[in-house]
Amino acid sequence: MAKPKLLVILGPTAVGKTGLGIDIAKKFGGEILSADSLQVYKYMDIGTAKPSREEQTAVRHHMIDVVRPDEEFNAGRFRAEAARVIDDLHASSRNIIVVGGTYLYVKVLLSGLIRGLPADREIRADLKKLGSEFGRRYVYDRLLSVDPESASKIHPNDYVRIERALEVYYLTGQKMSDLQSDHEFGEHDYEYVKIGILHDRDLLRDRIDERVDGMFEKGLVDEVRGLREMGYDPSLKPMQSIGYKEVNLYLDKELELESAVGLIKRDTKRFAKRQMTWLRRDDSIQWFDTSTEYDALMNKVRVFFDDA
Question: What pLDDT score was predicted for residue 184?
Answer without folding.
Answer: 43
